[in-house]
Design goal:
The protein has 13 helices and 17 strands. By secondary structure, the chain is α/β, with parallel strands linked by helices. The strands form 2 sheets. A 10-stranded mixed sheet has the order 2-3-1-5-4-6-7-8-14-17. It starts with 10 loop residues before the first strand and ends in an 11-residue tail after the last strand.
Length: 419
């Protein structure tokens, strides 16, 4: 064991601006502990982030020999105990395997992933193609991906794009490439047959691609039939709408409105909201025109409003103010996404939090199991509600309802419990 010798790079970021580079380092330095920035040219930099040892203040790589000395077993036994694909003819006792795995974790062992992939004539690196959005949702998603990949010592490389042609070009280069082991990506919003065909071809040829947020990133707002064979991790948007409805009911609302922006990729959010109200014996009307806002101002009934995304809720705050309404008393407002601005609007916005960090971690773990030959199903990650002033919370409140958990997907249909 040699102090100061660096393990294989855990993360690669490419084509980063200076500001984004700084943000990445601020986010990931506490996790990985060491980084080096290598300038390639004026426009491209690679940031190589190394894993910090859990047991020492320096940077080093724990070897199988180090673990073998600690547990007093042969190196071959340690190797079999830590293998993802152990030899069926060389079984390690369960108690021995548990001891070795526990010791490896305590010592901060990270397997040399590239060495294990040399026999496959392929790199261990996972490629991630993400949208160009610069917001909390994307940052949390990247954080979750990096955290889970770092735990398993898989290198990452991030690509960012904003169009179907970007993704098609990316997949065209990747489909026969030996420089990666798998791909995590979004389908583009304006999806056409050619890009869908590329996604299907990659899946059929390599079976190591995982899609994110497919219903809300295709035109129909649901999982298209051609994607159902490809494993996915999606946010349970209908459940988020249900959480908003249940909260407004508990706050004593007896009339309900909803509003959305066109186009409508988040239809399932509104569906979940209306379905939960229907189960309680209520209906919801759309809030859209100036006349709708004036009618709301003249009402005396406690009314709950649900906006399909925070950016729309912020616009609604302006329209409500024009008719003399400040949400939080007779009129309550809930958004969806938990954007950064929701904490600082006036009043502070209650909203459905999109757990993209948990989504990113789950996506990496599923993809790694696929890389090693496992079969994975599509899963939904449930969001949770953050209650602030706009729906009756106090000035400093951030009350959490619900927790991020996963359920098996029903091919884009609403969860059975909401029907």
């Amino acid at each position: 064991m040699k102090g100061g010798s660096f393990p294989e790079a855990s993360v690669f970021f490419s084509a980063l601006s200076a500001d984004f580079t700084t943000a990445v380092l601020q986010i990931f330095f506490p996790i990985y502990g060491f980084f080096s920035v290598i300038p390639i040219d004026k426009s491209v930099k690679y940031i190589i982030i190394y894993k910090r040892s859990k047991t020492r203040g320096c940077f080093f790589m724990v070897s199988l020999s180090d673990i073998a000395k600690e547990v007093k077993f042969n190196v071959s036994v340690v190797s079999r105990a830590l293998s993802e694909n152990p030899d069926k003819h060389a079984v390690v006792k369960a108690e021995t395997r548990e001891l070795i795995q526990r010791t490896a974790m305590r010592m901060g062992y990270q397997p040399n992933r590239q060495a294990s992939f040399n026999g496959r004539k392929r790199c261990a690196t996972i490629y991630c193609f993400l949208p160009e959005n610069a917001d909390r949702l994307t940052a949390d998603l990247m954080y979750g991906i990096v955290r889970a990949a770092g735990e398993e010592n898989f290198p990452l490389k991030f690509y960012r794009g904003g169009s179907e042609s970007d993704l098609s070009g990316f997949l065209l280069r990747m489909i026969d490439g030996i420089d990666h082991s798998g791909v995590i990506t979004y389908p583009p919003f304006a999806l056409t047959g050619s890009c869908a065909e590329m996604l299907r071809k990659y899946h059929e040829k390599r079976n190591t691609i995982l899609l994110l947020n497919t219903p809300t990133n295709t035109r129909k707002g649901r999982v298209d039939a051609e994607f159902r064979a490809i494993p996915q991790v999606n946010i349970d948007e209908a459940y988020g709408g249900m959480l908003a409805a249940v909260h407004l009911l508990k706050q004593g609302c007896r009339e309900f409105r909803y509003s959305y922006l066109e186009p409508m990729p988040y239809k399932s959010r509104i569906d979940g909201f209306r379905m939960a109200l229907k189960r309680a014996g209520f209906t919801a009307e759309e809030l859209r025109t100036p006349e709708d806002y004036r009618e709301l101002a003249n009402s005396t009934v406690r009314t709950g409003i649900y906006a399909d995304r925070d950016v729309h809720a912020f616009n609604m705050l302006i329209h409500l103010a024009r008719v003399g309404i400040t949400p939080g008393d007779r009129v309550l407002l809930v958004g969806n996404d938990d954007k950064q601005q929701s904490k600082y609007s006036l009043p502070r916005l209650s909203t459905v939090h999109q757990p993209t960090m948990e989504e990113g971690m789950l996506a990496v773990r599923k993809l790694i199991r696929m890389i090693f030959g496992g079969k994975e199903k599509t899963e939904l990650v449930r969001p949770y509600l953050v209650v602030r002033e706009s729906s009756g919370g106090g000035p400093d409140d951030e009350i959490i309802y619900g927790f991020p958990e996963t359920t098996e997907s029903k091919d884009g249909k609403l969860p059975q419990e909401l029907i």
